[in-house]
Amino acid sequence: MSEALGVEPRRSLLKRLGDLFSDEPTDAAELRELLQGAAERNLIDADALNIIYGALQVTEMTVRDIMLPRKHLVALCAQDRPEAIFERIIESKHSRFPVYGDDLDDVKGILHAKDLLPLALERDAELSEFDIKDYIRPATMVPESKRLIVLLQEFRATRNHMAVVVDEYGQVAGAVTIEDVLEQIVGEIEDEHDVDDDGLIKQMSETTFNVKAATPIDEFNEQFSVAFAEDEFDTIGGLLLKSFGHVPERGESIVLGTLRFTVLSADSRRLGLLEVQRAGNARA
Length: 284
What we know:
- Helix content is 35%, strand content 20%.
- By secondary structure, the chain is of the alpha+beta class.
- The strands form 3 sheets. A 5-stranded antiparallel sheet has the order 8-9-12-11-10, with helices on one face. A 4-stranded mixed sheet has the order 1-7-6-5.
- The radius of gyration is 25 Å and the shape is globular.
């Protein structure tokens, strides 16, 4: 009678729910194993799994883990002549710049390069009255210890895309952008200055190239007329990770043979984009 009334199926459903929650993960490692098992059973695809892993990782990371270090910052001095400021903006191809006064620890604000576009139509006489302080926006200052998940929430709430990072003494330690945080979740986000999808190597000047870390060693050797060993690593990124001995931060450089490699983009797991220069022409 109870079976006819549907009592038994209800018990089976409750039992199944109980069985499900009896295997509930108790820590991050067990959760990752559960997700990996779901991927192996094709319940989620590899891209979704990587994004979930990235989101879990962000909850455990701080600004210090991903910031662009102070020594690699491209900043603008408020006291420089307009010509020097414009030249630095054009040369770097960045969209946002910390602006400082007497020294880098004296941060005045953030300059958005697009805010200077109207000046492209100004005559030299009018540019002589240019004052960068008229164009900068307030700078967001964050400590190195701030958790990335909290910073991401603040970026969304304030609509800021860059923050200046300060150490425990209040000195500038580096900078971090919303793109840096998102790349920890979804992987490298390429912009208009990155190598396009159809090419792994893009020449930027007579002596400078942007190279994807996924470029096969044999293709790299042919392009640059070098002979890096092809038996141990498949890609130039793999070779560099071995040479660095760790996953390098953005801005870190290393010289191998006649070439200097500078990391343009990377996350905590892998290299993304590299700048390659002939060592004789590379900046020290």
